[in-house]
Amino acid sequence: MNILRLLDKLSYDKFFTTEASRLETITNMSLFGKKAATAAVPLGLGALMTTSAKAETTVTKLTGTALKSTLTDALQLALVLEYLENEYYSIGLSTPGLIPNGDRTVFMQISKHESAHVSFLKSTLTSLGTTPGNKPTFDFTASGNFMPFTDYNQFLILAQAFEDTGVRAYKGQAGNVMSNKVVLQAALQIHSVEARHASQVRRMRANKGWIELANGGNMPSATNPVYAGEDNVNQAGYNTGTLFGAAAGSAAYDEILSGSDAQAIASLFIV
Amino acid sequence: MKKTIQVSNQGATLDTSRRNFLKLGGVGLAIAGLTIIGCNDDDDFQIMEESKYDLGTGDVGVLNYAYALEQLEADFYTKVVNNFYSGISSIEKEVFTDLYHHEVIHRDFFKAAISGATDHVLPKLEFQYPNVNFNDRNSVLATAKALEDTGVAAYNGAGKYISNPAYLVIAGKIVSVEARHASAIRNLINPGSADFSGDDVIDANGLDLAKEPKDIVMAAGAFIKTPFTWKERGIN
Q1: Contact A105 B176 (CB under 8 A)
Q2: Which A-chain residues 126-155 have CB contacts (< 8 A) with chain B?
Q3: Where is average pLDDT lowest: A203-207, B2-6, B122-126?
Q4: What tens digit of pLDDT does each residue of B86-140 get?
Q5: What average pLDDT does this structure show over B158-164?
Q6: Same structural domain for residues B87 and B12?
Q7: Which residue of chain B comes nearest to A252, CA vs CA?
Q8: Most Cβ neighbours (<10 Å): which of A228, A266, B8, B172?
Q9: Do B159 and B68 reside in the same domain of the chain?
Q10: How far is CA A210 from CA A61, B4, B58, in A?
Q11: Cα dihedral: A245, A246, A249, A254 (round 10)
């Protein structure tokens, strides 16, 4: 697996221990990866059609083996993200005093789903004749930059980032799994569960459940790449901001995240 | 195709016809397209068999299907925000206003997008809410929950019928927002519970609902006044 390592560029930034004013001065030095920051370009009709036409052409030209690889690679990426989320909530729930009693029901439900997603993806890969990847070793401090298991606020911040990333990442893989209708539907069914989770975690942080503009909502700038491109108001040539403004127009649509950008974000938490 | 037929003016027949007219799917469909357009005398109604609109085939059919559902959601929230139930909280007002915005945007997007691709665009549908009390918080929230969950299940079930990857991505961009809505409405109904992603919609594999178009139209049929078909998907 081609895991990108970006931490060396970022190790001096203690995003969660510095004051807001300093955070605001950090622009592109993002803990979530420089590459991802520029990843999500607005997709007009032209770009959209070009991209899809290319993807479609590629698909038709692929041999059976390559097609299968496209499909299983997408599932392997999804599995990495689910491993990450599953371990994150599992540790969070088993850390005494971290999650307040009033919030445990929500995180137990989310944790249950992420655990089920791991099992489901592993068995799906196996049924396709592919060995599921092993669980990576995670470091949720991202080399000391985060303290999610000692600071509940940081736990919520990362949970929101992981869920919003998951929504975008699954969406980004839709085209890669559409060769198999059963897998496509299951991926969509996981995708909307991640969105339900994201919406809930966002509310626990006093945010709206949806993403307006490219603003994660009181999130450290380190997480900007998770939200880069979410301010898109051009959907297939239609300006979604015309009726009620750009905030509503952008929130009405979640954007995709490419596989490499999703992997770049996940890799920050992989040893 | 227009065909004029004569039927006897009997109350029972009329009532049955009317009742079935309001519901898509199921046994009522044979007479669901009958519209009373006039009356020659006291004994006979003149009935026209309308050629019901068919959503179409291939991707056009799926896009028109999505457009129909977005029309319904947009129509519902338009009514909600034009007549907020009494005692509505500011957070609830904000949620419903946002949902109204999003769904109207989705509706108008589909109208523009489909019009740009084909002449076969679903007309404006009419809706009704026979069992919804717009002045009652519980009634409005329960209806919103049903609509959002239905929207999620509809998109999840229709994705496999889309052949153009660009359309699939667009559908994906919308369905996750519908799921965010569903989560929000569910949390308003039962705050802090597991309902935002409840066991009633998420199965043991952690998968959300996915429903076939036929089942969706059956479920939403009570709201839809304007009959349509989608023969390719068995909705006649």
Answers
A1: no
A2: none
A3: B2-6
A4: 999 999 999 999 999 999 999 999 999 999 999 999 999 999 999 999 999 999 9
A5: 98
A6: no
A7: B102
A8: B172
A9: yes
A10: 38, 51, 31
A11: -160
For residues B86 and B158, state if they share a domain.
yes
- Contact A158/B at CB under 8 A: no
Whole-angstrom Cα distance, residue B172 to residue A239? Answer: 18
* C-alpha dihedral, A207 to A212 to A218 to A223, nearest 10°: 120
Nearest CA in chain B to A55: B165
Report the DSSP beta bridge partners of residue B224: B127
Give whole-number Cα distances, B25 to A128, B22, B93, B127, B197, in Å: 37, 10, 34, 16, 29
Q: Which residue would you say has higher pLDDT here, A121 or A17?
A: A121
Q: Which of chain A's residues have a Cβ under 8 Å away from the Cβ of B148?
A: none
Task: Please indicate whether, in this complex, the C-beta atoms of A244 and B105 are within 8 angstroms of each other.
Answer: yes
Q: What is the pTM of this model?
A: 0.81
Given the cut 0.90, state whether the ipTM is greater than it: no
Q: Is the same domain home to B12 and B117? A: no
- Would an 8 Å CB–CB cutoff place A237 in contact with chain B? yes
Each residue of A27-82: pLDDT tens digit? 323 456 433 333 332 322 223 333 333 333 334 445 677 777 999 999 999 999 99
From chain B, pick out residues whose CB is under 8 angstroms from the CB of A244. Answer: 101, 104-105
A170-204 per-position pLDDT tens digit: 999 999 999 999 999 999 999 999 999 999 999 99
For the segment B37-84, what is each residue's pLDDT rounded down to a tens digit? 444 444 444 444 467 999 999 999 999 999 999 999 999 999 999 999
Query: Going from the N-terminus, what domains does chain A have, and what CATH number goes with each?
Result: 63-215+256-267 (1.20.1260.10)
Chain B contact for A122 (CB, 8 A cutoff):
no
Q: Say how far apart CA B182 and CA B186 lie, in whole Å.
A: 6
CB contact under 8 A, A192 and B192: no
CA-based torsion, A125, A48, B207, B212: positive or negative: negative
Residue of A106, A185, A209 lying closest to B210 (CB–CB): A185
B133 and B84 within one domain: yes
**Which of these ranges, A251-260, B38-47, B56-65, B143-152, has the smallest mean pLDDT?**
B38-47
Question: Which residues neighbour B119 within 8 Å (Cβ) at sequence distance 6 or greater?
Answer: none
Query: Diameter of chain B by CA atoms?
Result: 62
Judged by a CB distance cut-off of 8 A, whether residue B208 touches chain A is: yes
